[in-house]
User: Fold this.
Amino acid sequence: MKALQYVEVGRPPEIREVPTPEPGPGEVRVKVSAAGACHSDSFVMGLSEEQYAQFGYPLPMTLGHEGAGVVDALGEGVDAVEVGDAVAIYGPQGCGRCYECAQGKENYCPRAAELGITPPGLGSDGAMAEYVLVRDQRHLVPLGDLDPVRNVALTDAGLTPYHAIVGSLAKLTPGTVAVVIGAGGLGHVAIQILRALTPATVIALDIDDDKLDLAREVGAHHVFTSDEDAPERIRDAVDGAKVAAVFDFVAAQPTVDLGLSLLGTESDLVLVGVGATKADVGMLARPYDSTIRSPYWGSRSELMDVLRLARAGQVSVEVETFSLDEAPQAYHRLHEGTLRGRAVVVP
Ligand code: NAD
Ligand code: ZN
Ligand code: ZN
Assistant:
C-alpha cells in the first residue's frame, strides 16, 4: 500500500510503498477514508537530529494522528466492531488499565511511555496511508453518518480545543470574554466550541487577515491582528469586561506575553500550542488566583462529545482536501500558513 512517511530527520516526508499491515490479536485494520495534517507533525519534522532523538520515534514512520475510515479486518478476539463500520480513531492511546485510562483519559496515561505505546503518526504508523492498524477496538469511536472527510479533524483539531475549553468552562460565565490566539486548524474549531458551550464574548487574534476572516465566519464576535495594540482593542471592544480565559494555539513568547497581559483575577491562560516559554509567576507578578495550564489532546468520551456537537450542526471543520500523492503539499501549505482551516488527505 501507499503511505506518507517521515523517513529521515530534516528531509520532507515521502510517499512510499509499504506492506499492508495485518491485524494481530486484539488489533483492527481500518481502511482510511480521511487523515488530517496537524501543525504538531510540522513541529516534529522541524526538530533537529538531537531534539528528535529525545522523542525517540522510530523512522520511517507513517504520518497522520487524525484518522477516520472503515473497519477492514479484525484481529483475533475483536468483537465490538464489525467489518464495514465507519469509525474515527481516538489517537492518544494509553495502557487501558490505569486510573486515568479507566476514566477514558488515555491522553494522560502515566504508563504509555514506559510501555512503548505511542499515538498513530506520533511514534507509531499513522493514518496517512491506505490502511492503518489500530491497537485496540476501544480506540474506535463510531462515526455514524458523519462525513469522514469533513469530520476527521475533530479527532484532534476538535478534541484538543474541546478538552482545553472544558477545563475553563466554569469561569466562562455571562459577561466574560474568551480570547483565541491563532485561528488555524485548532483555533477555528475552538471558536465554534466556545460559542456552542459558553455565553462568553469570543475574540480571535491572528497575524493573517484570511484567518481573521475565517474566525469571523465561524462565530468570533470580534477579530483583531495579534500585535501590541491588541489588548487595547480588546478592552475597547468589550468595554473592559473580564477576560476569563485565553486559549493560545501558538504559544510562542510574544503570544504568551500577550495572553498574560489580558488576564484578570482567577483567569486562565491555556497554552495549547507546542512550545516552552517563560513567565513571571507568584502573588506579586500575576492577578490573584490566575492559572496557566498546558492541556494535551483529550479523553475518549470528550471525542464522543465533539462528534455529538458535529452531529447537532454546532461545530464544523473548514477543510482543504489533498490526495495521498499530494500529501507532501498539504504539509508544505501548512508550513507556509496558507491553509484555510485543516488540510485533509483522502487516500
Ligand atoms: P495551524 O498552523 O493550523 O494554526 C496556527 C495559527 O496561528 C495560524 O492561523 C497562524 O496564522 C496563527 N499564528 C501564527 N503565529 C501567530 C502569532 N504570533 N499570533 C497570532 N496568531 C499566530 O496549526 P494547528 O494545527 O491549529 O496547531 C496549533 C498549535 O497547537 C501547534 O503548535 C500544534 O503543535 C499545537 N497542538 C497542540 C495539541 C495539544 O494537545 N496541546 C494538539 C494539537 C496541536
Ligand atoms: Zn495534532
Ligand atoms: Zn493508562
User: Anything to note?
Assistant: Residues 2-156+298-346 form a domain with the Quinone Oxidoreductase; Chain A, domain 1 fold (CATH 3.90.180.10).
